[in-house]
Design goal:
The complex is a heterodimer of chains A (about 750) and B (about 290). Chain A has about 750 residues and is α+β, with helices and mostly antiparallel strands. Chain A is built from 19 helices and 27 strands. The model of chain B has no long low-confidence stretch (mean pLDDT about 95). Classes of the chains: A alpha+beta (about 750), B alpha+beta (about 290). The structure holds flavin-adenine dinucleotide.
C-alpha cells in the first residue's frame, strides 16, 4: 500500500527489478571482508584484555616473537602517542580504542597483535604474549558510573555542557539540555500525568559478517587495505590518524559487506593489520571471531530514562520532562545527543525539558546502531504516552494525531519542519485492516511512533557511458541496503536507458571522489543526488553532441526516452547507442563527475502496530501480527524500502524481547555468542506488513527521504504497549524477557 | 588428532581400548563446537556413523531399536514411530534445526550429558534402555542411569552405546515433551518436561511417569506428582498438585539462561501441560494400537 501524492509516471523509479548484486551473492562469488587471500599473506590474531578495567604494567612479547612462524608482534608502543602529540581528544580515543596504551577499559580491549604464517601459529603466539595487569575497580552501568566516588575511567574527564564547569573529574563526559516553555504551568494544565522510569541494556547490531581486514604495506610507506566497512573513506581517515600518516598514503578497497547497521562506521582491525604488515613485510589478514565481535565492537548504549508527561482531557500534551543517562562504553560519545533531539520530536509540545548525560563505563565503546539513541528514548516516551491515552480513554492513534508535528511545527530540537509525513503514517495504520483485526485470548495490540532526522553529508559519483550505450555508475558508498539498485534505477530514469544497461559499482578511495559513510539513511538521498547530477551532466553533453551532429543550437535538442530528439522532428533521433558509438568524433569519451554536500535532508517518521500473545503462565511473548507504516518520501526501490522497514522492526523486536549484554560481576561478558545473545530467528516472527507512505521530500530530485533507520525506533514501545494490552502489566525494563514478564505477572497477582 | 571410522562394533570397541584418549562421536554437533571453543581435542576421534547397525531404526513385535548414532531426523520422519511415540519424536524434533537433526543422535544427546538435553526426559518417561558395548561385551542400562552429572556418564572410557531399546507403547498410553525457550528454535531448554501416562478402563490414570530437564544436574523424576496422578482423572486440583510437586522437585541454578525462581515456576507449568497432552494422546490410543 502506498500513498502517493502525485504519480509522475516514472518508468524505472519505483519498480522491483532483480538486484544487481544478487547473482554473485547467491552463487557464493561475492567477496566479503574475510574472503581475500594474497600471495605470501600472513594471518594475524589480536590479544585482548581479560579485565574490565586495569592498568597495563608490562607486556612481554619475547616468547611470542620467538615462536615458529611468527613474523610480527605489535603493542600500543608501536603506534604514535597522539596525546603527547597534542591531537584532538576524539582522535586520541579512536587510537586508544584500537589498541590500549596505558589502561584497558573493557574486557576485550586490544593490547597486542601478532602475525604468523598460519592461523594456528598466530593463535598460539597470541596466547604467549605475556601481559601484566594491575586490576582496577570497574563500573558497568550508568548508575555505577555516576555514583559518588565511582572509580574513574579517565582521570581528567570534566563534564562538558555544564556551566560553570565542574572542578572534579567524573565519568560523565557531557550533559545536554533542551527546554521550552514552562514545565510547572504545563503540568498544571494537565488532566492526567504519568511518570515512569525505564532501563534498557546494551544491544549489538548483530551483523552476520564479523569484522575483517587485509593490509598490504609497501616499503615506501604506502599501504592498501581491503575491509568490510560502511565507508572506506572513513576507514582511511581513522587508520591514517591512528598510524600518524597522511590519508593519501593509504588506499582502501571496500569489500562486499555482510551487514553493518552503523557498527561498521568505525575502525578496529585496520591500523593493526597495516602495522603488522609493515613489520612483517608481507600482507596480513585479521578476522574477528564472533565472540570478539561481541566483546569489542559495536553495541549501542544501555540506558536509564525517566519520563513525566501530562495531557489535557482532549489529548493535548501539555508538558514533558525527560531525563536520560546513556552508557558510552569506554570513551565519550554515546548517542545521548541524538536521543535528546529525537525523544519528543514527533510531537508539538509547548512545555518541555529534556536533559541527558553521556556516561563512560567499562564496556566496549558504543558504535552507531540504526537511528542511534532514538529507540531507547522512544521506548520510554511512547510507553508513557500509551498509558496517558488509556488514562483519558483515547485511541492511541488519535492521541498521536492530536499532537503530531506537521509542516511548520517548531521541532523540539530547534528548526521548523518542512513538509513531513508523520500524520500520513498514523492514518495509514488506522486505515489498515490490521488495526481492527480481531484479537484472541491473551493477545494485545500496541501502537508506537518514531522519528529520525536522516542525514545528508558529502557524496561523489562518476558516470561513464560505454561505447555501446550502456553506462557504469561509480560511487564510493558501500552498499549495505540496496543502494546499487537505487543508483541504477535513478540513472536509468535520467538517461532513459534500461535498468539492465546500467552497472552500478562501488569504487575504492583512489578511483572515485570522496564519500562520507553509508549511514544516517543518507545514501539514496545524497549519493543518489550526485548520481542524478552526473547523469544530468551526461545528458547535457549528449544534447550538445547531437546539436553539433545536426548543426543546430543546443536548445533545439531534447533528451527523451534515451534519445536526442530535434524539437521539430527535423532530424531522425540519435540514441545513446548512436552517440556513444561516435563519441570519438563528437568530443571524446562521455563521462561526468558530480560531487555535493547534501541538499535538503528529509526527516523520516514511522508508526507501528504490534499484536502479541503472552503466555500468562510462562511469560513468553510471541509477536503474532505486525504492521509498519513509514514515510519513504519516494520509494526508489520498493523491495529494498520494505526490506529496510522490516529489518528495523525485526531488530527492534529482538531488542524488545530477548537481546541483551550479560556481564558477570567482574565485567566479563557471559553471552558472546548467537546461542545466548538471543536475536530473533525466522520462526519467531510473523510476516512484517509494510505500508510505504510517500510524502516526497521537496529537496530531492525524486523526493527521497532515506529509510534505513527510523523503523527501529518504535518497536520496543509497540511491543511493550501490546504486552500491556494483553495481560495488563507495564514493562519498563528491556528486554521484556519471559522471566521479567512472568515476574511482573506474579506481582500483579500477588 | 586422528579420525577413524570403524565399520563394526568390535572394531570400534578395540580402538577405544587401545587408545586411552579416544572419543566416539556420532553427529559431532556437540563435539566439534566444543573443540572449536577451546576444549582439548582427543588424540583419536572415532566416527560411529559408519557402523551399519548404529544408524538404523527398526521395530519387531515387542520393541523399537534405535541405533545410537541414528540421526534424530529419523525419529521425526518415521510415521509409525512418531505416531507411537509422539512425545519422544517431538523432543527429537526440537534439537537445533533441520540441519542439526540430520546429524544429531540420541546417543550424542544423552552422552554429552547436558542437563538441558531435550531427548533425555522423553526417553526417561518411556523407560528407554541403552545397550552399551565395551571390551567385555555388552550390558544394558536404563537411560535414567546413564548420566551421573553435567558432562559425566556411567560409561567407562572404553564403552559406548550401540543402540536404544524402547518397548512398544501399550494401548491407552501416551507421551509428551514440552520445553521452554525464549525463542522458538535454536536455543537451549530453560526447562523441559516429559510425561507418559497409561489410562485404566474407567479413564482414570493407572500409571504416570514425569521427568524434568534443565532444572537439576541430571534429569529428575517427580515421584510425588506421579503418585498424585495415579488413580485420578487429572482434575484441576490434581494438576495443581502436579505443578507444585514439579516445582518442588527442581534443583536449578541461576544463570544467564534463567533464574531459580523462573525455572521452578515454569517446571510446574510445563509438567502440568505435558500431563494433559499425554492424557489426550492416551485417550486416542484406545486399544486399537
Ligand atoms: C546449533 C545447535 C543447536 C542445538 N540445539 C539443541 C537443542 O535444541 N536441544 C538439545 O538437546 N541439543 C541441542 N544441540 C546439541 C546437540 O546437537 C545434541 O546434543 C545432539 O543430540 C548431539 O548428538 P551428536 O550425535 O551430534 O553428538 P556428538 O557431538 O557426536 O557427541 C556428543 C557426545 O556424546 C558422546 N557420544 C556420542 N555418541 C555416543 C555413543 N554412541 N556412545 C557413547 N558416547 C557417545 C561423544 O563422545 C560426545 O561426548 C544443539 C547443537 C547445535 C550445534
Amino acid at each position: 500500500m502506498a500513498i502517493t501524492e502525485e504519480n509522475p509516471g516514472y518508468k524505472w523509479v519505483g519498480t522491483r527489478p532483480i538486484r544487481p548484486d544478487g547473482l554473485e551473492k547467491v552463487t557464493g562469488k561475492a567477496r566479503f571482508g574475510a574472503d581475500l587471500v594474497l600471495p605470501g599473506m600472513l594471518y594475524g590474531k589480536v590479544v585482548r584484555s581479560p579485565h574490565a578495567h586495569a592498568r597495563i604494567v608490562s607486556i612481554d612479547t619475547s616468547a611470542a616473537e620467538s615462536m615458529e612462524g611468527v613474523k610480527a608482534v605489535i603493542t600500543g608502543a608501536d603506534f604514535p602517542d597522539l596525546a603527547a602529540n597534542g591531537a584532538h581528544p576524539s582522535d586520541i580515543d579512536v587510537a586508544n580504542n584500537a589498541i590500549a596504551r596505558d589502561k584497558v577499559l573493557y574486557e576485550g580491549h586490544v593490547v597486542a597483535a601478532v602475525a604468523a604464517i598460519t592461523r594456528e601459529q598466530a593463535e598460539a603466539a597470541a596466547k604467549a604474549v605475556a601481559v601484566t595487569y594491575e586490576v582496577l575497580p570497574h563500573v558497568l552501568t550508568v548508575d555505577e558510573a555516576m555514583a559518588d566516588n565511582a572509580p574513574l575511567l579517565h582521570e581528567a574527564m570534566i563534564t562538558k555542557g555544564v556551566d560553570p564547569a565542574p572542578e572534579e573529574p567524573s565519568n560523565i563526559a557531557s550533559k545536554i539540555l533542551h527546554e521550552r516553555g514552562d514545565l510547572d504551568q504545563g503540568f498544571g494544565e494537565a488532566d492526567a500525568v504519568v511518570e515512569r522510569e525505564f532501563t534498557t541494556k546494551p544491544v549489538h547490531q548483530g551483523y552476520i559478517e564479523p569484522h575483517a581486514a587485509v593490509a598490504d604495506a609497501n616499503s615506501d610507506g604506502r599501504a592498501h587495505i581491503w575491509c568490510s566497512s560502511q565507508g572506506h573513506f572513513q576507514m582511511r581517515a581513522y587508520t591514517a590518524t591512528v598510524l600518524g600518516v597522511s590519508p593519501g598514503t593509504l588506499k582502501v578497497t571496500a569489500a562486499e559487506i555482510g551487514g553493518g547497521f552503523g557498527g561498521k562506521t568505525v575502525i578496529y582491525l585496520e591500523p593493526l593489520a597495516v602495522r603488522l604488515s609493515q613489520r612483517a613485510g608481507r600482507p596480513v589478514k585479521l578476522v574477528m571471531d564472533r565472540d570478539e565481535v561481541f566483546r569489542a565492537t559495536g553495541p549501542t548504549s544501555g540506558t536509564r530514562i525517566k519520563v513525566k508527561m501530562g495531557v489535557s482531557k482532549d489529548g493535548k500534551i501539555t508538558a514533558a520532562e525527560v531525563w536520560m543517562a546513556y552508557e558510552a562504553g569506554a570513551y565519550a560519545g554515546s548517542p545521548v545527543g541524538a536521543a535528546g533531539m529525537t525523544a519528543i520530536a514527533c510531537y508539538d509540545i509547548p512545555n518541555f525539558v529534556v536533559e541527558g548525560y553521556d556516561v563512560v563505563c567499562n564496556k566496549p565503546r558504543v558504535a552507531a546502531y540504526r537511528a542511534p539513541g532514538a529507540p531507547m528514548a522512544a521506548f520510554a516516551v511512547e510507553s508513557v504516552l500509551d498509558e496517558l491515552a488509556r488514562n483519558i480513554e483515547m485511541d492511541p492513534i488519535d492521541i498521536r494525531l492530536a499532537n503530531a508535528a506537521v509542516e511548520g511545527t517548531q521541532a523540539s530540537y530547534g528548526p521548523k519542519f518542512p513538509r513531513i509525513g508523520f500524520v500520513e503514517t498514523l492514518e495509514a495504520i488506522k486505515e489498515h485492516p490490521n488495526y481492527t483485526a480481531e484479537l484472541g485470548p491473551n493477545q494485545g495490540r500496541g501502537v508506537a511512533a518514531g522519528f529520525w532526522f536522516n542525514a545528508g553529508m558529502m557524496s561523489s559519483a562518476t558516470v561513464h557511458v560505454n561505447e555501446n550505450g550502456t553506462a557504469t555508475v561509480v560511487t564510493g558508498s558501500p552498499d549495505i541496503g540496496g543502494s546499487r539498485q537505487s543508483m541504477a534505477l535513478m540513472a536509468a530514469e535520467e538517461l532513459g536507458i534500461p535498468y539492465e544497461s546500467i552497472k552500478p559499482v562501488v569504487a575504492d578511495t583512489e578511483t572515485v571522489g570522496f564519500n562520507d559513510v553509508t549511514g544516517g539513511s543518507r545514501v539514496t538521498l545524497a549519493t543518489g543526488a550526485a548520481v542524478v547530477d552526473a547523469c544530468r551532466l551526461i545528458v547535457e553533453d549528449l544534447r550538445g553532441r547531437a546539436a553539433k551532429t545536426w548543426d543546430v543550437e543546443v536548445d533545439q535538442v531534447e533528451w527523451v526516452d534515451g534519445q536526442a530528439q530535434h524539437v521539430d522532428g527535423a532530424q531522425p533521433p540519435l540514441s545513446l547507442n548512436d552517440l556513444a558509438a561516435k563519441s570519438g568524433r563528437t568530443g571524446g569519451p562521455i563521462s561526468a563527475n558530480a560531487s555535493l554536500n547534501s541538499r535538503g535532508v528529509g526527516a523520516g517518521f514511522s508508526t507501528q502496530l504490534c499484536d502479541v500473545e503472552v503466555d500468562p503462565e510462562t511469560g513468553v511473548t510471541r509477536v503474532v501480527r505486525y504492521l509498519t507504516a513509514q514515510d519513504a518520501g519516494r520509494a526508489i526501490s520498493p523491495d529494498y524500502v520494505e526490506g529496510q522497514m522490516q529489518g528495523g522492526v525485526v531488530q527492534g523486536i529482538g531488542w524488545a524481547l530477548n537481546e541483551e549484554y550479560i556481564h558477570d560481576t567482574e565485567g566479563v561478558m557471559e553471552n558472546p555468542s548467537f546461542l545466548d545473545y538471543r536475536m530473533p530467528v525466522a520462526s519467531d516472527l510473523p510476516m512484517i506488513d509494510c505500508a510505504i507512505v510517500e510524502v516526497p521530500n521537496p529537496a530531492h530530485p525524486y523526493g527521497v527521504r532515506g529509510v534505513g533507520e527510523v523503523g527501529i525506533v518504535p518497536p520496543m514501545a509497540a511491543v511493550g504497549n501490546a504486552i500491556h494490552d494483553a495481560v495488563d502489566v507495564r514493562m519498563t525494563e528491556l528486554p521484556m524477557s519471559p522471566i521479567k514478564v512472568l515476574e511482573a505477572l506474579n506481582e500483579n497477582d500477588g | 588428532m586422528k579420525y577413524v571410522a570403524p565399520s563394526s562394533v568390535e572394531e570400534a570397541a578395540s580402538l577405544l581400548s587401545s587408545s586411552p584418549s579416544a572419543q566416539v562421536f556420532a553427529g559431532a554437533t556437540d563435539v566439534v563446537p566444543q573443540i572449536r571453543a577451546g576444549r582439548p581435542a582427543p588424540d583419536v576421534l572415532v566416527d560411529l556413523k559408519k557402523i551399519k547397525e548404529l544408524v538404523a531404526l527398526n521395530s519387531d513385535g515387542d520393541k523399537w531399536t534405535v541405533g545410537a548414532a541414528t540421526p534424530t531426523a529419523y525419529l521425526t520422519e518415521d510415521e509409525a514411530f512418531s505416531h507411537e511415540f509422539p512425545g519422544l519424536s517431538e523432543a527429537a524434533g526440537l534439537i537445533g534445526s533441520d540441519q542439526i537433526q540430520n546429524r544429531s543422535s540420541l546417543g550424542g544427546n544423552l552422552c554429552n550429558a547436558s542437563p538441558a538435553a531435550d531427548s533425555v526426559p522423553a526417553m526417561v518417561v518411556n523407560g528407554v534402555r541403552a545397550v552399551v558395548a565395551g571390551p567385555n561385551g555388552t550390558r544394558v542400562l536404563d537411560v535414567s542411569e546413564v548420566v551421573t552429572g553435567p558432562g559425566q556418564t556411567a560409561l567407562d572410557d572404553d564403552e559406548f552405546i550401540v543402540e536404544f531399546e524402547i518397548d512398544k507403547m501399550p494401548s491407552r498410553s501416551g507421551d509428551a515433551y514440552l520445553r521452554m525457550i525464549p525463542r522458538t528454535e535454536m536455543d537451549i531448554a530453560v526447562v523441559g518436561a516429559g510425561a507418559r501416562v497409561t489410562l485404566a478402563d474407567d479413564g482414570s490414570i493407572e500409571q504416570a511417569v514425569l521427568a524434568l530437564g534443565a532444572v537439576a544436574p541430571t534429569v529428575v523424576r517427580i515421584p510425588d506428582a506421579e503418585q498424585a496422578l495415579v488413580g485420578s482423572t487429572a482434575d484441576e486440583e490434581t494438576l495443581n498438585a502436579v505443578a507444585a510437586a514439579a516445582s518442588e522437585a527442581c534443583d536449578p541454578i541461576d544463570d544467564k539462561r534463567g533464574t531459580v525462581e523462573y525455572r521452578k515456576q515454569v517446571a510446574g507449568v510445563l509438567a502440568k501441560r505435558a500431563v494433559v497432552i499425554a492424557i489426550e494422546r492416551a485417550e486416542q490410543r484406545n486399544g486399537t494400537n
